[in-house]
């Protein structure tokens, strides 16, 4: 089978699983694994604290220096921005978003607007809500110093491809601040394992937007992801078994 | 306003649908239109980046007058932007001298920041066993120690049995498996995000309403 045909078949299978989850999910009240993990609760509590104590939240998006069209993680980051924006629409303290610029920056601004519209608070939207802080991950992280005014934040949510630059966050952020890192970049996940408080590994990055929602819902996307995860795990075990037994 | 948004949404859906289907059609004309569309999208993104940089410079100037310790950083930042812009206007954007200066500055700063990363990581490794750590951080630290010893060449110096060498090779293969697992996970996540856009195109909280 040609690669393109195989890809098309896989996409159709995924779409089929998605539709089944959408039809069955709501009726059966199935809940996804993501939402009640300790790290999800910690991040949600920080957002609540930010609203109560007027401590700002900083959302940092980096596309790994892909200055033209943006990296693959930008869509997932935009979803998370929309969810956080819907919750922070009523906040007294404006929250900060730092972006790599270009396509990604504009997508983030649109996500902020959509989030505020979802919260019926679109009048609070301001066009310069997302600040450009540098193109490459290094310059982007260092550029945050000039954007953030160095006010202590309740939460720093770093989403995207950062390379080794999360190690620099130790020099930027003060002690009481919580740093959460998630993305499709393996190096930044490894570095963040050392200095971040919360790390979303692998596909968990795409779950952040849902796990930050203020109430738990039967979510089609997350159910689909759970089903796909189990299918991949089963396939690994089946093929490993075949390999070991020599059938 | 709503009408123009609907029109833009229809245009986006049509373009997206065409680009998606073009991956599976090997007709030269379809491939050529697809490549041209990507090229124009990249040009548009580059133009957006230009606007973003100009916007960032204006914001920095506006904030220079604000109280706070960031005044010097903002002034330096805007000064550098202005210097590069002036040089670019005088010499032209294709000037090799200008590009050499800009890339030299960028590389110097990135090298300095990379040095800082090394220092931060060394300090983090020292700090990690001391602080109250999660299971993940402890596993990371133990894993790092094990792989430092294995990749240091120490096991090769020990003339162990064939079984010992097999075990070392097996341990060395574990990170490759973990990387493949993580990448598979990322691919699943990306595919599901794509499906969500295809079927709902809204915020996650609105997906099942």
Strand content of chain A: 5-15%
- In CATH terms, what is the architecture of chain A? 3-Layer(aba) Sandwich
* Strand content bin of chain B: under 5%
* Largest sheet properties of chain A: 6 strands, parallel
Calculate the terminal CA-CA distance of chain B, rounded to whole Å.
25 Å
User: What is the 3D form of chain B?
Assistant: extended
Mean pLDDT of chain A: 81
The low-pLDDT segments of chain B are none
The proportion of residues forming helix of chain B, as a percent range, comes to: over 70%
How would you portray this structure in words?
With 247 residues, chain A is α/β, with parallel strands linked by helices. Chain A has one domain: Rossmann fold (3-Layer(aba) Sandwich). In chain A, 52% of the residues lie in helices and 12% in strands. Chain A contains nine helices and six strands. Chain A starts with a helix and ends with a helix. Chain B contains seven helices and no strands. Chains A and B meet through helix 1, helix 3, helix 4, helix 5 and helix 7 of A and helix 2, helix 3, helix 4, helix 5 and helix 7 of B.
Write the layout of secondary structure elements.
The complex is a heterodimer of chains A (247) and B (209).
Chain A (H helix, E strand, L loop, with lengths): L2 H26 L9 H16 L3 E7 L10 H15 L7 E4 L2 H17 L11 E3 L4 H11 L7 E7 L7 H4 L5 E5 L3 H10 L2 E3 L7 H4 L8 H26 L2
Helix pairs in contact in A: 1-9, 3-4
Chain B lengths: L1 H21 L5 H37 L6 H21 L4 H32 L7 H17 L2 H4 L4 H38 L10
Helix pairs in contact in B: 2-3
Main traits of this protein?
heterodimer, A: 247 residues, alpha/beta, Rossmann fold, six-stranded parallel sheet, 6 strands, globular, B: 209 residues, mainly alpha, 7 helices, 0% strand
Describe what is shown at a glance.
The complex is a heterodimer of chains A (247) and B (209). Chain A has helices at 3-28, 38-53, 74-88, 102-118, 137-147, 169-172, 186-195, 208-211, 220-245; strands at 57-63, 96-99, 130-132, 155-161, 178-182, 198-200. Chain A is α/β, with parallel strands linked by helices and 247 residues long.
